[in-house]
Amino acid sequence: MTNLIPTSTSTDEVERQASVAVLPVGSFEQHGSFLPLSTDTIIASAIAHEIASHYPVMLLPPITISCSHEHAAWRGTVSISARTLHQVINDIRESLHKAQISRLALVNGHGGNYVLANIVQEASVDGPHMALFPNSHAWNRAREAADMQTDSHEDMHAGELETSILLHIYPEVVRPGNDTADWIATDRPHLLTVGMAPYTTSGVIGRPSLGTAEKGAKALASLTKSFAEVLDALAEG
Q1: What is residue 160's DSSP assignment?
Q2: Which domain does 99 fall in, by range?
Q3: How many CA atoms lie within 13 A of 230 on its CB side?
Q4: What CATH number does the domain containing 144 carry?
Q5: Spatial distance between the Cα atoms of 235 and 138, rounded to a whole number of angstroms
Q6: Which of 90, 43, 105, 37 is nearest to 65 (CA)?
Q7: Can you tell me whether residue 148 is helix, strand or coil?
Q8: Count of domains for the chain
């Protein structure tokens, strides 16, 4: 999984002269019995790697633990507080700014990192300095491009989308069982209060049986293409 960690040298970055850095933000949380705890980190890093392969950006190593408190009922999940994640990202942004890289795009692989939206809002008050990617439009576009049968609400966690991307990029980490792990729980009004446990016994909410490597490839290609809009937004002003 060498793609998870950038291997560029300082000389490479001097030659690149990137004005935008890309920071993958993952998590370390349960994804059922068939996907690894590091699923979100792998996916965020894969998206960021593809972005760096197509656009002149500086690729940063991933943040591997974030805000996964809703998954605390399952052994193996590890979280940090929203305030810690906020501070870490602000410290990274400040360090980049000292290195004359004034724009930062967060590639988020975990939907529970709600604080990232606030970080981007605060950083961009005086101009477009940070962006959060993929947004809901990019994810929905990727699902459509991949001909996925589920939407983002039904397929919330360890479902068709995440299984497909991992089957495409690292099929060796997908263990047997996704074909029988579908779990539908579209009515989950108190998830932030009670966590996921009342809504799923397996940790899955979605339809992983529908996942295929072909869908994963199409979704990743769509997300890479969508990132051009982020660069345009960061360039404004």
Answers
A1: H
A2: 19-235
A3: 28
A4: 3.40.50.10310
A5: 19
A6: 37
A7: coil
A8: 1
- Written as six digits, the tokens of 233 are 């937004």
Helix (H, G, I), strand (E, B) or coil at 154: coil
Tokens of 88: 């870490």
10: in domain: no
* DSSP line for 92-146: HHHHHHHTT--EEEEEE--TT-THHHHHHHHHTTTS--EEEES-HHHHHHHHHHT
**pTM for this prediction:** 0.97
Please choose, from the candidates 119, 91, 95, the residue with its C-alpha nearest in 3D space to the C-alpha of residue 105. Answer: 119
Q: Please list the residues that pair with 58 across neighbouring strands.
A: 21
Q: Which helix (H) or strand (E) holds 59?
A: strand 58-59
Q: How many CB atoms lie within 10 A of CB 187?
A: 6
* pLDDT one-digit tens code per residue, 189-206: 999 999 999 999 999 999
Nearest to 157 by CA among 75, 37, 22, 25: 37
Structure tokens at 21: 């850095």
pLDDT in tens, 98-127: 999 999 999 999 999 999 999 999 999 999
Q: How far apart are CA 101 and CA 172, in angstroms?
A: 36
- At 116, list the tokens: 């990232």
